[in-house]
Amino acid sequence: MTNLWLVVHFAGLVLLAAGIGVANVSGIQLGKTDSPRLLVMWSGLNIGAERVLILPGALVLLVAGTALVHEEGRSFGAAWIAGAYVLWVVAIFLGAGVLGRHAHEINRLAQDEVASGAETSTASAALARSAKGPAVGMTLNVIVIAFLVLMVFKPGG
Question: Domain tally for the chain?
Fold first, then answer.
């Protein structure tokens, strides 16, 4: 059964990695345009990556990882396992709670600008260029690297 959970865990990792890639590309592109139509497209892609790839991948990783801890008889109190759970909660909060809301707000503002016939964005482009997206995105990338370190080296375990 452990091999099955490893495959499921790996599938969750592939979903998450694909979503992170799409979100990073779309996040970078958001800061490079003044076109409300492009802002709608890039923020929509970011929102879609979150819904279809990132959150499902994160949930699969959580379930499969928990099953692996149980199957292998490891302690949930081990530092690297407890650390992974804490990082998971922080990543979901930052990703869905902060960055997801940021993308939704850009999308809403850009849609309003498109509906008003604006060719150049003001509010949504300013929000897309704010430091929030890159700062939270980079923090999430560091968390992913920390996850990998924990899973590969299993410090203290």
Answer: 1
